[in-house]
């Protein structure tokens, strides 16, 4: 009986199912403003949470710099065009 329970539980808790469960719990946690690491207190989950935050912050910063550079480029181009029209 015990070996059946262990074997059955082993088939339920495969790596794939554990990953699905972690994703589900992480998604549910986000709806409450928490992360998976806040629930599990696992160092790996905290590490991945921190890495995700760094990635999101980097992407936001890159986007902001790109938008600023595009606006500056457009402004410089407009100013140059105005200056060259005046000198004609």
Features:
88 residues; mainly alpha; 88% helix; rod-shaped
**N to C succession of SSEs:** HHHH
Radius of gyration from CA coordinates: 26 Å
Estimate the helix proportion, in percent.
over 70%
How many helices? The count is 4
> What share of the residues does DSSP label as strand, in percent?
under 5%
The total domain count is: 2
Which structural class is indicated by helix and strand composition?
mainly alpha
Distance between the termini: 96 Å
Largest sheet: none
Number of β-strand runs? 0
Shape: rod-shaped
Mean pLDDT over the full residue set:
85
**Parts with pLDDT < 50 across at least 5 consecutive residues:** none
The gist of it:
By secondary structure, the chain is an all-alpha fold.
Describe the 3D structure.
The chain has 88 residues and is mainly α. It has 2 domains: 1-41; 42-88. The chain has 4 helices and no strands. The mean pLDDT is 85.
Topology:
Elements: H1 2-12, H2 15-30, H3 36-40, H4 43-87
């Amino acid at each position: 009986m015990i070996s059946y329970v262990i074997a059955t539980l082993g088939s339920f808790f495969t790596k794939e199912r554990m990953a699905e469960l972690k994703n589900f719990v992480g998604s549910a946690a986000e709806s409450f403003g928490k992360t998976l690491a806040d629930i599990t207190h696992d160092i790996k989950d905290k590490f991945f949470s921190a890495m995700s935050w760094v990635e999101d912050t980097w992407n936001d910063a890159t986007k902001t710099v790109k938008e600023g550079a595009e606006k500056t480029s457009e402004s410089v181009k407009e100013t140059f065009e105005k200056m060259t029209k005046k000198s004609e």
